[in-house]
Structures are given as C-alpha cells and as structure tokens.
Amino acid sequence: MKVEQAKQIASNAIDELSQALERGHSETLRNYLAAMARFHRYSLHNLILIVSQRPDATRVAGFHTWKQLGRNVQKGAKGIMILAPVVLRKNREEGTSEADESKAAVYFRAVYVFDQMDTEGKPLSELGSAQGDPAGYTERLKQFIAGRGIKLEYSNTIYPAQGQCSPGKIVLVPGQSAAEEYATLAHEAAHSLLHMQERRAETTKRVRETEAEAVAFVVCEAIGLKAENSADYIHLYSGDKETLAESLEHVQRASSEILAAILPAD
Questions:
Q1: What separation, in Å, do the N-terminal and C-terminal C-alpha atoms of the chain show?
Q2: pLDDT tens sequence across 69-85
C-alpha cells in the first residue's frame, strides 16, 4: 500500500507541475531543478517524492547512514518516504559464467530517509559556496569532458554565441568570466550528453536549448554558483505531462552524471 501511496504522491506532483506550467508559471519547476542540485544521487521519481513531502529538505539519508556519519535521527522525526528497488539475482546454471548471470529489479519497496535538520551529532562537512567563482570546478568539468573523448577549443568565430557543441567537440568564446565559462561549459556538456544521439531528431531546438540550460542551472546551483540566465523553463512543457516527465528525466540523468564526476565524494 505504501508503494502505491508513493507512486500517487509523485503522480500528483507531476500533475500539479504541468498545471502550473500550463498557467504560465515556471517557479515550481525551477524549485525542482534546484532540488536536483541537492539530491543528484536520487532518481527523478524519488526527488519528486522528497520535494513533495519535505520542500525545505537540504540533505537526506537513511537512519543507518546518518549513524555512520556520526549523527542520530531525533526521536519522533518524521521520515520521508521514497522507493528503493529490490534486486533479485537468478541462480547461475551449470556451465554459465558469472557474466551470464542475470539480475532484474523485480519490485520496489517503501523506505524512509530523514533530513539533516532532524538529526543531531557530529558536524557535517559542507560544500563550499562558489559565490560567483567556480574555482577548481571548471577544471574538473573540463576533465569530465575530456574523459568522454570530447575536444575543447576556444574561438571567436562562433560569436555572438558563447558556446557551441558538435559531435566530439565543444567550442567556447574566449574571454568569458570564470562564472560564465563554467555555466557555458555545463550547457554545452549537456548538449553533448543529451542531443548528439538519435534523440536529437525527436526534439525541437527550443526544447534542446531549455534542457541544456536546465542542466547548467542544476550544475551551477550544486556548487553555489547562481547561473545568470533568463531561461524560461516553461518550454520543457508542451501540453503533455508525459513528455514533461521524460524531459525532466533526461535533465536529471545528465546533471547527475556531471555532478558525480566533479563533486567530491561524501
């Protein structure tokens, strides 16, 4: 019953988000993007569950994880219900290798996480705010891009565009401020992850640009850098909530992949 309840919470949240966008309001969507920056290790479905139940949550973990971090969940604290996959492995048949052993997420179960405000104990390490300066994160982002076999170049020939992405290459206009360069690089990295495959033909230029800007927003927000842009994220919605959810899923996955590579491990 709790699993169905969780699914209903997420479904209602997407309904409310699509209705807000239909009315021309994108602030709710911006809040979800900000949450992606805080909870980039969680799936879109669980992110929606967290925000729906605890909009002010900043850092969440399970009871035992908090214990390992030297903190205790306060008595009476209300948990945030999310879904965890239960993976069963099939027995390996004689003559098959370990690589042939198949596994599948058969079902989900409801589990609870707690916000850091509901815990007490050892102080947590905090991610330093960039405050307008991405510091070493730009170099880490460049390393992430190089690791994917993407060449980075600088050229004035693409002006007035600040950045440009093509298969296997990203070009940036030289002379941008540190914050602008980081945000532009994040935007073009998103294009490389999301729009250099067959899915490109299935999306409009406006949706592609909005998705890339949404990823840049998340990747900037995660290091405390406020992305200075006028992107209207309402363009992710075109009257179809399924398409909206799919687009958000792509934004979440791309953001998570980038942040997993550039943020220090907990």
A1: 33
A2: 899 999 999 999 999 88
CA distance 208 to 170: 16
Strand-strand pairing, 60-62 and 103-115:
antiparallel
- Which tokens sit at 154? 């600088």
Q: How far apart are CA 158 and CA 67, in angstroms?
A: 52
Maximum separation of any 2 CA atoms in the chain, in Å: 63
Structure-token match 């669980």, residue found: 46
Dihedral pair phi/psi, residue 114, rounded to 5°: -130, 145
DSSP state letters, 90-117 = PPPPTT--GGG--EEEEEEEEEEEEEGG
Q: What share of the chain is helix, strand, coil (3-state, %, to 5)?
A: 50, 15, 35
Tell me the whole-structure pTM to 2 decimals: 0.80
Whether 223 and 179 have beta carbons less than 8 Å apart is answered as: no
